[in-house]
Amino acid sequence: MNRMRYIFSVLLLTALLCPRSFAQVQVETLVNLNASGGVTYGPDGMLYVSDFGPQLGPADQPTSVYRVDPHSGDFTVFATGFDGASGAAFDAAGNFYQAEPRGNRVTRINIDGTRSIVADGLNTPVGVQVDEAGNLYVCNCGAGEVLKFDSSGERSVLVADAEILACPNGLSMDISGNLYAVTFAAGNVVKISAAGELEVLAELPTLQGGPNPVGLGHITWHQGILYVTTIGTGEIYRLADDGSDVERLAGIPFAFTNIDGAVDQATFSKPNGIAINGDGDKLFVNVSEPGWPTDPSGLHPASIRVITGF
After folding, report:
1. pLDDT tens digits, residue range 70-111?
2. How far apart are CA 248 and CA 227, in angstroms?
3. What is the C-alpha to C-alpha distance for residues 89 and 91, in angstroms, rounded to an integer?
4. Distance between CA atoms of 2 and 104, rounded to whole angstroms?
5. Is the distance from CB of 65 to CB of 73 less than 8 angstroms?
């Protein structure tokens, strides 16, 4: 009975949060690709999709990052040898930064192909961003904090709040240098100023019933709008970066399937990474085929979906 009440309350909440019609929204599968981590839109107009691994638990072998053509779905291996790969980002020079949650580090792949560890000794790092000055920001999920590494590698805690930042997972940045984080163990969408001031912009639905809530996956910013995946309930949300106009863009709560088509029938299973193209008219989301009821920790097989018409 408690479970049914919870589902009803979430359905009511999402209905209230979704006043606008997205009748033209369409969802299509771009490619089947076992890459369950973050999705990053590169400066070359290609997608970079990181693979966390086949399960939420420990992995038996290194994982890879794939370079995917957003039009055809053709892909190649961009880099491999990661101890899990989740959030990633490019800096202004085109260098690529990859968080390795299982390895507790962040690796940089330079434009010449050389690589180095730029942050180590972390506690399950997930989301990363790099500002124009070369400062690296990392969601240190296991510690409930966001770290800053300056261009010399010096480490500091930008902000720490284990209650608000309940496993900070995805991380994005606007053109003014404000950061936006979402939490895996809660439904919080959080704005972090350059001075480290925290503001909860929204609380999105989570999946209850286990030892901890399953909340949000990743987040991306584009021209004042934030796009967020709710990995637990299987939805895609968008909201203004001041916290207003919170709307469900796509996904049917608790469907636990991956069905393409119009917004009234399209569903998502464990949507995690999310990226938007340069024109702002296509969102790319990776999903996992196993549903929560039958395989809660399963992440493979996986695929990349495209959302248009918003």
Report:
1. 999 999 999 999 999 999 999 999 999 999 999 999 999 999
2. 10
3. 7
4. 37
5. no
